[in-house]
Amino acid sequence: MSRVISGGSLQRLEHFIISSGVGFKDVELHVCLGEIPRLVNLSVAARDFGHLSFKNLVLHFDTLRHLSLTRCRHVTGAMVQTILQSCPQLVFLAAPRIEASQIISRKRSLCLGLKTLKVCIALNSEDYSIGLQSRMI
């Protein structure tokens, strides 16, 4: 892993796609995301993408256009909500899940150009489903 990021080899990288067969750990993804100066497309099927990786993903919120985190078991609804509120260039987002209560919240999305959102909406109680229905009417 250290050979991949040594010598500035990630300096021109804008599209970073990691398939499910690659065994990156959270700390390794964190380091890679910290070394890339401008990321436009990130597609990660690494199950261990988590809080450390997310800390450096934040560095790319202004430039991200395509983000897929579908097989990342440690991505939380709060992370998805933060992405929706913080990525002005985002056109595509695929993530594991978000709580219905987080969608209903009054916080506005900054992703005004979002064209595709692929996410499982979790309804944890009748209160959330009733609230979601009332907002949709």
Brief digest:
The chain is α/β, with parallel strands linked by helices and 137 residues long. It is 34% helix and 19% strand. Helix 2 (26-35) packs parallel to helix 3.
Please characterize this protein's 3D structure.
- This protein is α/β, with parallel strands linked by helices.
- Helices cover 34% and strands 19% of the residues.
- It is built from 6 helices and 5 strands.
- The protein has helices at 2-5, 26-35, 51-57, 77-86, 100-104, 126-136, and strands at 15-18, 41-44, 66-68, 92-99, 116-122.
- Strands 1-2-3-4-5 form a 5-stranded parallel beta sheet.
- Strand 4 (92-99), helix 5 and strand 5 form a beta-alpha-beta unit.
- The model is unreliable at 126-137 (pLDDT under 50).
Summed up, the helix count is: 6
Strand order of the largest sheet: 1-2-3-4-5
What is the global morphology? globular
| Helix share bin | 25-40%
Biggest sheet character: 5 strands, parallel
Quantity of strands, as a count: 5
How far do the termini sit from each other? 51 Å
Mean pLDDT over the full residue set: 81
Structural category: alpha/beta
Write down the secondary-structure element order.
Answer: HEHEHEHEHEH
- Low-pLDDT stretches are 126-137
- How much β-strand is present in the residues? 15-25%
Layout of strands and helices, then pairs:
Layout: H1 2-5, E1 15-18, H2 26-35, E2 41-44, H3 51-57, E3 66-68, H4 77-86, E4 92-99, H5 100-104, E5 116-122, H6 126-136
Parallel strand pairs: 1-2, 2-3, 3-4, 4-5
Helix pairs in contact: 2-3
Features:
19% strand; 6 helices; 5 strands; 34% helix; single chain; 137 residues; alpha/beta; disordered C terminus
